[in-house]
Amino acid sequence: LQLRIFNLNCWAIRYLSKRRQERVQLIGDKLRWEGFDLALLQEVWSEQDYSDLKAKLASSYPFSHYFRSGVIGSGLCVFSKFPILDTLLYQYSLNGYPYMLQHGDWFCGKSVGLLIIKISGILFNVYVTHLHAEYCREKDAYLPHRLVQAWELAQFIRHTSKAADVVLLGGDLNMHPEDVGIRLLRGWTGLQDAFTEAECFEGCEDGCTLVPSNCFTVKAELLPFPLGIRIDYILYKAVSNFTVKCQELKTTKGTAPGVDIPFSDHEAMMATLHIHRQGQPGGATTTTMDPKLVDVVTEARMEVEVGLRAARRQRYWRGRMAVLALLLLLLQAAAALGTLVGLGAGQPFPKLSFSLLAFLATGVLLLATTLHLFHTMEVKMLQGTEEQMRRVL
Amino acid sequence: LQLRIFNLNCWAIRYLSKRRQERVQLIGDKLRWEGFDLALLQEVWSEQDYSDLKAKLASSYPFSHYFRSGVIGSGLCVFSKFPILDTLLYQYSLNGYPYMLQHGDWFCGKSVGLLIIKISGILFNVYVTHLHAEYCREKDAYLPHRLVQAWELAQFIRHTSKAADVVLLGGDLNMHPEDVGIRLLRGWTGLQDAFTEAECFEGCEDGCTLVPSNCFTVKAELLPFPLGIRIDYILYKAVSNFTVKCQELKTTKGTAPGVDIPFSDHEAMMATLHIHRQGQPGGATTTTMDPKLVDVVTEARMEVEVGLRAARRQRYWRGRMAVLALLLLLLQAAAALGTLVGLGAGQPFPKLSFSLLAFLATGVLLLATTLHLFHTMEVKMLQGTEEQMRRVL
């Protein structure tokens, strides 16, 4: 069986992404023209764009699914030539902070979507995902969250793919190939990287998917990486007695073929996989851990612990702020009560500033309490992941 | 293989549950004395209680796991005689409202926990869960959320149990046996009810787990049900060529044996299951839907649609409130600006009420926006579930 897969982070944010509608049209044209078996898309934030694509691709990809999640939507969708038998969405337990409005990851409810597809009697578990973005590589405050996501992704794949013949994962993982999260994901699931395994590769050097030659990328962010970075992946493995080989992998090179603009700020990946029945089980999930994997899990666990300490600090400070605001409010209430019953020598403060202060204190109290609760949840989830990793070790 | 299982909603809320510490001690004593193979507990909200139980049961149940989630914790924990090979937590996408402080379900991050356990070469997938409470049966505002949870629970079990030999589910489902959610869960997973299947039953009439004779239950809530209600369950099925039979099911009857207080406001369930290898696959997941299941899914879908309409209304009203607050603020800003540049005949409002109004408007704006976002997420998740159910039909 030969399977042709398309994977792209479409960068289709309403009102924010440049030339969005034009690009979505281009992506639709490409998909229709090429007739892939499976197209895995990320960052299709607008359901209208999905509906437009669906209408356009109805004849060539009769089956499709959009994963709803978060405030804006997960942005994940899939177009398929073959019937989608079932779907499941797993929302990551940690995904940035709601108050980081400028980053906005929290509002998308980042998730992994699972699709069950049967092609010529072979059962495929297809996963599509998009992990938390990396905004500053030097001081990456979101690394613990992304590691929790990578761990949850690996665990979700392990637990749901046991009856599958072939596992496929496509998505924007926001991690470089040598990052601990990718090593953790690949080590813990046994997934193979289409780029490193490809018999024939054609595209950007080193398989990069975010390259300076793309006119939509932020050049300043790519300064330390003159060739670009590789953060989008197609990963696969055979679970039962099948083997999967990547015959060919292509990426776009900064522009869409035949036009002057790229599909997105990311490059599209197009893989041709060859699946055949004979042979030994491929990358079966390891039951005894090899020492290399132990190192990776230990490294990931240490990063999670760093995040845990930070989350605990945040929780402590928000709690403290809430207590201070509460004390101030109580003090004001006591002063007001004193004036009312005529104990003090009249109201010593001007009424206006007194009321403003009370309102301010109430605002701080509510905000700090909410943040305290949020960071409590963060601590819980980081603790849970850390414990799971410890159990595995 | 004979397996003895204990299941109990422990009602161990710190500061709120009556005689908590005494009861947790009693539960620990019972578990140690009886030596079950597996104890599935819910509502162990305090990690201290879990640690105490763990220390006490270290010799009889060397393996245990506490599922962390939400602000307070999921309350779910498991004690096992046999090694726990792996765990996974799935947090339900909908779980009440954060502003319903008096109900508090939202703060627990209600989830289903999965444990993989191997006993005598038989692979068990053990699930423990606690669904959203029902506060008013006549006008149950949480029914759509509980149905989404039941659906997600069923889907999670279906997708993760494909390699298991035996599936076990224990927990407080907060649904009566004839409720649509239970029928959906059982129909869609093929799980069997230990109470109806038990060869020998001893306990409260009709297998009730919330009974008037228990001194901790709220009598007023049980008025329409003189015998009590059955909302805690042990469900099971054999996936591969195994058969599972429930030889015996017992419940406590309002008090713990030998003492004057009950373990909890719920009754404990104790099941003895008999698992043997020969025989045809038991309740294998149905591939073609029988007409009865179609009816159940249709009924559930209609309830989800009712919830969807309510969520949309909420989202609309919160949005409207936010817009009104914003308009008021803009009006105030214009008036203040007018006074500043000397256009108007001085400030016509007293400064104090003017400032208070501005603060109030800001507060309403923030609150309404947050709620609007929250209900947008609710709409998304209800839509997603409704679509999944439609696909299944």
From TrEMBL, chains A, B:
Q: Which PANTHER family match?
A: PHOSPHODIESTERASE, PUTATIVE-RELATED, SPHINGOMYELINASE FAMILY MEMBER
Q: Name one Pfam family in it.
A: Exo_endo_phos
Pathway assigned in UniProt: Lipid metabolism; sphingolipid metabolism; Sphingolipid metabolism
Reactions this protein catalyses: an N-(acyl)-sphingosylphosphocholine + H2O = an N-acyl-sphingoid base + phosphocholine + H(+); 1-O-octadecyl-sn-glycero-3-phosphocholine + H2O = 1-O-octadecyl-sn-glycerol + phosphocholine + H(+); 1-hexadecanoyl-sn-glycero-3-phosphocholine + H2O = 1-hexadecanoyl-sn-glycerol + phosphocholine + H(+); 1-O-hexadecyl-sn-glycero-3-phosphocholine + H2O = 1-O-hexadecyl-sn-glycerol + phosphocholine + H(+)
Q: Which residues belong to any copy of the Endonuclease/exonuclease/phosphatase domain?
A: 18-266
Query: Where this protein primarily resides, as one coarse class?
Result: membrane
Gene Ontology CC entries for this record: membrane
Enzyme Commission number, as recorded: 3.1.4.12
Record family assignment: Belongs to the neutral sphingomyelinase family.
Write out the transmembrane intervals. 322-346, 352-374
Cofactor names from the entry are: Mg(2+)
- What are the record keywords, sorted? Hydrolase, Lipid metabolism, Magnesium, Membrane, Metal-binding, Sphingolipid metabolism, Transmembrane, Transmembrane helix
- Which compartment or compartments is the protein found in? Membrane
Please give the organism: Calypte anna (Anna's hummingbird)
Q: How does it sit in the membrane?
A: Multi-pass membrane protein
Output the GO biological process annotations, alphabetical, semicolon-separated. sphingolipid metabolic process
Top EC category:
hydrolase
Name of the protein: Sphingomyelin phosphodiesterase 2
Q: Which InterPro entries match?
A: Endo/exonu/phosph_ase_sf, Endo/exonuclease/phosphatase, Sph/SMPD2-like
Q: Name a GO molecular-function annotation.
A: metal ion binding
